[in-house]
Amino acid sequence: MTATIEGASEIALGPVHELTPGEGRTYVVQGRQVAVFLLSDGTVRAMDAVCPHKGGPLADGQIDDAVVMCPLHQYAFSFDTGACTSEGVESVRTYSASVRDGILTLGV
Questions:
Q1: CA-CA distance, 13 to 1, in Å (whole number)?
Q2: Strand, helix or coil for residue 32
Q3: Per-residue confidence at 108, pLDDT binned at 50, 70, 90?
Q4: From edge to edge, which strands make up the β-sheet containing 97-100?
Q5: Which segments constitute the Rieske domain (predicted)?
Q6: Nearest to 92 by CA among 73, 68, 108, 74
Q7: For the segment 74-106, what is each residue's pLDDT rounded down to a tens digit?
Q8: Integer-rounded Cα radius of gyration of the chain
Q9: CA-to-CA distance for 68 and 59, rounded, in angstroms?
Q10: Rounded CA gap, 31 and 74, in Å?
Q11: Residue 6 in this model has a pLDDT that exceeds 90
């Protein structure tokens, strides 16, 4: 899905039921790929969708409540800060995400 709203501080991405608990999905927001994850507790997290190491698809990675692991080389990135848990790998940008009335929203 592609979402673009000039000057907006929040963007509606679509119904939260399109996400599978415990998995991620990539959206294109203002020309940028963003991975959005629905955690087991019902909260949503968002970060850049591309691993800075070798371009792995973070939305396809394994998650827990704190990190997503890149499926290519198992580098883990914090949902809170975007920092990689391994030295020498750049951080990814994180975004605020929430669900309002069943609609997934992303802060930009």
A1: 7
A2: strand
A3: confident
A4: 10-15, 103-107, 97-100
A5: 11-106
A6: 68
A7: 999 999 999 999 999 999 999 999 999 999 999
A8: 13
A9: 8
A10: 26
A11: no
Average pLDDT over residues 4-17: 77
Nearest of 51, 6, 54, 9 to residue 26 by alpha carbon = 51
Q: Encode pLDDT of 30-51 as tens digits.
A: 999 999 999 999 999 999 999 9
Tokens of 21: 């608990």
Q: Which two tokens stand for residue 82?
A: 């975007």
DSSP code of residue 72: T
| pLDDT attached to residue 1 | 44
Contact 47, 81 (CB under 8 A): no
DSSP at 20: P
Tokens of 4: 């673009």
**Terminus-to-terminus CA distance in the chain, angstroms?**
16
Task: Give the CATH class of 7-95.
Answer: mainly beta
pLDDT at 5 over 80: no
Contacts of residue 30, defined as CB under 8 A and 6 or more positions apart, other chains included, come to: 3, 4, 11, 108
